[in-house]
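Give me the fold.
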Amino acid sequence: MRRKITYPFTYTYAWSVLIAMAIFMNFAFAKGIASPQKADANKFKSDTVYHVTKTKGGKPSYLKNGLHLALPPLKPAVTSTAKVNVSRPDDKLLNDVQLYPNPVTDQLNLKYTISRNTNVTVKIMDVLGNDITTVFNQRVEGGDHNINYQINNKLTRGFYFVRVVAGTESVIKRISVL
């Protein structure tokens, strides 16, 4: 009868050893044990990568490598309070559209906020969707904007819609003219 031969080296054993070595190396580099510049460890920061090069005099020179950004030093268990404003393409372009007073008698005031430079068109339409007049059509800078429009003898009594279009976004508000 044949005896089954078992080998101590299996794939499971190999992966276990590999993972254990990776964890050990991670801790060793984090503590600075495996650092080649053990004597000059005080010159290094934990969040910056340096390359050691030889100069003409034979002394080592430490060059910073990395991003062209000024990043704050990383500290464990500390939450940063720095605010970074990055506009994403999926952010809203047209925000906080306000139309007042409503009902309107003589002057219509429009306030809106644009997040970046774009073309803005403001139109007044009747209840059937027909364009009555174009109040504003220009390219504007990002920020808060106000538009004042005199409606004396330009609109009859009734309900109208004000359509604000910024880029590909639009907001429609209903007004009542007395």
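The first strand starts at residue 49 and ends at 54.
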